[in-house]
Amino acid sequence: MRTAFILEAIAAVNDAVLNSEAELESLDREIGDGDHFINLKRGCAALLAMRDELAPLPPADVLQRIGMKLLSTIGGASGPLIATFFMTMAKVEKAGDLNSLAEIAAAFHASVEAIKQRGKADAGEKTLLDTLIPVADTFSRLTAVNAEPAQVFDAIQQAAEQGMLSTKDMVATKGRAAFLGERAIGHIDPGARSSQIIIHTIAELAKQ
Ligand code: ADP
Ligand code: MG
Ligand code: MG
Predict the structure, then answer these.
(1) Residue 120 and residue 11: Cα distance in Å, rounded?
(2) Quick one: pLDDT at residue 98?
(3) Tell me, what CATH number does 95's domain have?
(4) CB of 28 closer than 6 A to ligand 1?
(5) How far apart are CA 79 and CA 147, in angstroms?
(6) What is the Cα Rg of the chain in Å?
(7) Does the first or last residue of the chain, that is N or C, have fewer Cβ atoms within 10 Å of its Cβ?
(8) What pLDDT is attached to residue 78?
(9) Which has the minimum average pLDDT: 37-46, 61-70, 95-104?
C-alpha cells in the first residue's frame, strides 16, 4: 500500500461521490432520512483538506487519520462503520506492511469483519455489508489463486455491483430502513450503493 495511491483514491472517490448526489440523496430519501450523500460529501471534503498533512506519512498512519477524521465528520449510522473499516486497515498495515494483493485482501476482509461487529449486522440485512462482504470474499478467493490484478479488480467490481443490486429485494433488519418493514422492498440500500461506487472507483484506479 502506498500513501500516494491513497491520496489519489481520496480525490477520485470525492469526484465519484459528488457525481452521485442526486441518486444517493434520493435512495436515502426513499428508505432513510435523505442525508447519506451529505454525510459522505462532508467526509470526503474533510479528507481532501488533509492532503498536505497526510502526504509525508506512512500508509498505516494515513489510514488511521482517515478513520479518525471520518468518525468525526460523516456522522449518522454509516460514519462509525466506515471509520471502523479504516482503523482496522490501519492496524493490520501497522502490524506488517501490506505489500501483496493477497495481504491487502486479508486486511480488507478483517476490516469488513470489524464493521459487522461494530454494527452487529451481517449479510442479507440490506446494508452496505451486502456490497462489502461479497467484495471481501471475491478479493480473498482470487488473490489466493494468484489471479492477475486486472482480473481481481474486474471481479471485485462485479461482486460489488451484484451485492449492491441484491439489496433491492431485501427487507431491512438494521438501520432506519428497518422501520419500513416490507415497504423497503424494491429500493436499493443507499449505503450499499455508495460503497459500490467507492469500490468501483478505487478498483478502476488500481487497474491503471
Ligand atoms: P443514517 O441512517 O443515520 O442517516 P446514513 O444515511 O449516513 O446514516 O447511512 C445509512 C446507511 O448505513 C444505510 O443505508 C446502511 O447501508 C448503513 N447501515 C445502517 N446501519 C447499519 C448496520 N448496523 N450495519 C451496517 N450498515 C448499516
Ligand atoms: Mg441517512
Ligand atoms: Mg441521518
Answers:
(1) 31
(2) 82
(3) 1.25.40.340
(4) yes
(5) 33
(6) 16
(7) C
(8) 97
(9) 95-104
Based on the structure, what is the number of domains in the chain?
A: 1
Nearest atom in ligand 1 to 35's CA? 6
Lowest model confidence (mean pLDDT) among 48-62, 86-100, 117-131, 139-153:
86-100
| Ligand closest to CA 42 | 1
Question: The C-alpha cell of 7 is what?
Answer: 491520496
**Cβ atoms of residues 45 and 36 within 8 Å:** no
Which of 21, 82, 128 to probe ligand 1 with, by most ligand atoms within 8 A of CB? 128
**Residue 97: is its pLDDT beyond 80?**
no
Residue 62's contacts (CB-CB under 8 Å, 6 or more residues apart) are: 3, 6, 7, 54, 90
ipTM tops 0.95: yes
Report how far Cα 187 is from the mean position of its chain's Cα atoms: 19
DSSP 121: -
- Find the helix packing angle between 190-207 and 21-31, rounded to 10°: 150
Residue 154 has pLDDT above 80, yes or no: yes
